[in-house]
Amino acid sequence: MDFDDETGEAADMPRSQAFDPAEGGRPPTRAEEIAAALEAEIMRGELPPGQRLDEQALGNRFSVSRTPVREALRLLAASGLISLAPRVGAVVARPTVGEIVDLFELVGELEAAAARLACERMADHHRARIAEAYEACRRASRGGDVEAYIARNDAFHAAIHAASDNGALKRQIALLNKRLMPYRRFITFRPERSQTAEQEHEILARALLAGDGTVAAQAMRDHVKVLAEDALILARSLRL
Length: 240
Fold this sequence. Notes:
Elements: H1 30-43, E1 52-53, H2 55-62, H3 66-78, E2 82-85, E3 89-92, H4 97-121, H5 124-141, H6 146-164, H7 167-187, H8 194-210, H9 213-224, H10 228-238
Antiparallel strand pairs: 1-3, 2-3
Helix pairs in contact: 1-3, 2-3, 4-6, 4-7, 4-8, 4-9, 4-10, 5-6, 5-8, 6-7, 8-9
């Protein structure tokens, strides 16, 4: 499949949306800044599932009182990234394997809807962006850099979401993906999965660029779904 070259500019990469400074036309509060920093660490796996988040330690780290820390933790709890419990405090969310599989199943259906809508609604600039993002993702999958591949994969999916022209759908997918990001590293981006994922991306890209919504939707489901083997590897890796 021939596509235009991807520039690789960082500006093409999707970024966190839960605590966007531009949202509402105002700068972020200190609590939102702290929440965004912790969110990024959870999504990168630096704060693992089950990790306790101590208010005093966080206050010292960010040089603030406990008040903005507590508000930040409430924001993270509202998005499902942490849990708050009496006498325990804040803990990075630790869902069961079954719950994770359920979330992957749900996001797969939403992603499939985005792919179908993209086929129906995409303009020429959407088509070009999808083609470029796919090619960049294909190159990254062969480069051996996991972080680069994750970023390019996210950019490919973001191009599809943009082409779907449905803001509510994009927001729901983004929220679910934030909850799933720590586990995607163990499931979607395992080394032995790279060749399969590349083949899945090619099928998906071909269907999208051909405007075949039915094939594109099914290709997306197949790409996002979690198999029993993946869930078992996840459970052993994270001791869930």
